[in-house]
Q: What sequence folds into this?
């Protein structure tokens, strides 16, 4: 009987959490750390590169870029719950001087300072970003897309990262 009361009390919170995670979007699915490392190596991330992670989720790619590749990193995430979580993880890792998390829409943020763009987005979003990339990114900016190629663009390299491919492009 007590667990029924617990579930009834907890259900509004669980509904809010579910709604917050899928609000007009696909569920955020974090990439395995090994895949992120392969993507960062594919992009040839160097010390002091500025890495943007579009749809940065819990911030794991930003943490790896900062800790292991000594890059600076900016995450753009629309989900407020994931922004809060990733900021907490950044603070816990004492990386607030190397990582910034922006709560916002990737289409509203200017990417002109990026050296590297990482993304694991839906096929539709990946294609919609082509025009933004052409408009804002500098010559030489590297883009790594996990799972979805950018249709109409010729990748520089394609590697297997887990159960799918990641694609490297250069502006």
A:
């Amino acid at each position: 009987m007590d667990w029924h009361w617990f579930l009834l009390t907890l259900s509004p919170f669980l509904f809010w959490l579910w709604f917050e995670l899928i609000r007009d979007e696909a569920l955020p699915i974090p990439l395995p750390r090994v895949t992120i490392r392969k993507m960062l190596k594919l992009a040839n991330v160097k010390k002091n590169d500025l890495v943007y992670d579009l749809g940065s989720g819990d911030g794991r790619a930003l943490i790896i870029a900062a800790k292991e590749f000594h890059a600076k990193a900016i995450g753009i995430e629309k989900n407020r719950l994931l922004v809060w979580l990733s900021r907490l993880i950044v603070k816990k890792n004492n990386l607030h001087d190397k990582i910034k998390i922006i709560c916002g829409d990737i289409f509203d943020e200017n990417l002109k300072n990026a050296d590297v763009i990482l993304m694991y987005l839906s096929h539709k979003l990946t294609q919609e970003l082509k025009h933004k990339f052409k408009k804002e990114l500098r010559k030489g900016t590297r883009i790594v897309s996990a799972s979805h190629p950018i249709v109409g663009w010729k990748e520089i390299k394609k590697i297997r990262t887990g159960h799918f491919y990641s694609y490297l492009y250069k502006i």
